[in-house]
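Ticket 4471: requesting a sanity check on a complex prediction with nicotinamide-adenine-dinucleotide. Repro inputs:
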Amino acid sequence: MAPQLRFGSALALVTGAGSGIGRAICARLAREGAAVAACDLDGTAAQETVRQIGGSRSEDGAPRGNHAAFQADVSEARAARGLLEQVQASFSRPPSVIVSCAGITRDEFLLHMSEDDWDKVIDVNLKGIFLVTQAAAQALVSSGCHGSIINISSIIGKVGNIGQTNYAASKAGVIGLTQTAARELGRHGIRCNSVLPGFIATPMTEKMPQKVKDKVTRMIPMGHWGNPEDVADVVAFLASEDSGYITGASVEVTGMKLAWGRTGQRSRTPTNEKASEGRLELLWEGQRLPRPGTEMGTPSPFISPPMHLSKCFCPSQEAFSCNCLKDPGLFSLPQPLCRVSC
Ligand SMILES: NC(=O)c1ccc[n+]([C@@H]2O[C@H](COP(=O)([O-])OP(=O)(O)OC[C@H]3O[C@@H](n4cnc5c(N)ncnc54)[C@H](O)[C@@H]3O)[C@@H](O)[C@H]2O)c1
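Returned structure tokens:
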């Protein structure tokens, strides 16, 4: 069946277009007829995206339009403004679909995070989106055009994640920025929505150790990671008139929100190993508990190193919780993972 061409006359600007989700978004929008301005800090990667989506016809016969690559650092005000000027000059119109997908991580515990790691992530993930959204909105308003702005946030902006104070803050900021922009720009016919992916298999998440990936997988209610195309599908919907009365929304693409407090019930093998002191028994759903207030410094079999349990307590005798400590350098499994029943 021929694909729907929802973007026949649209020009789409996509930042972070040289990799992962951004590249998949470019491909999806191009497949539905949009001309794509693919921007990335890595100009060669942006060109490769254009090469991949280029050509007059796709395999299924749909026209792909004309695309162009742009190199820009979205965290630099001059570069962001210059990007919009270059795109307008190249295509003789402002983009009517703007997808801000450029993003980075610099993970570290709050206790150890450098100011530089904080600033860099905020600059790219939050300030970059402010700069691109502002420049694009100014171009649209001054030319009297309507548009759809889609900012890529993250579910981490809503639920947090150990080792990612900078990232979580930046992504929470994107949600607030987008909601506010939607309120301000609605009267100009510009819709603004954010997308909150969960764990998506891309170069950004590839660097996670396999055992951490496995643990994350167990926390996803649908039981598997998303693909960049899963996010691109939602972006295409928000970019199109199919979502014409949706603005200020934050759409989660997560396989259902991560089960921070419910993990282990489905696929984890119950474990009941003795802790090294010999008087504590570990613990999973329904397993026996240590005495309330017991200190546990022993690595847990299911929160295997580098995570440790400490300061266990059992306030109600029906539920048990504890604090988790983790060494730096990994994505984390958060505190509720340690919750078990008496
Ligand atoms: N992969 C996931 O699990 C996941 C989950 C939630 C949200 N996200 C968000 O989705 C977006 C895309 O992530 P991804 O997984 O495809 O990552 P990725 O690392 O594969 O791609 C990010 C792209 O952004 C570009 N970029 C980085 N800094 C830039 C800058 N200053 N200016 C312009 N471009 C810049 C990079 O060169 C890269 O091509 C990011 O905003 C990320 O935070 C990803």
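Notes from triage: Strands lie at 11-15, 35-40, 68-71, 97-100, 147-152, 190-197, 250-253, 307-313, 319-326, 340-341. Leaving this open until the requester confirms.
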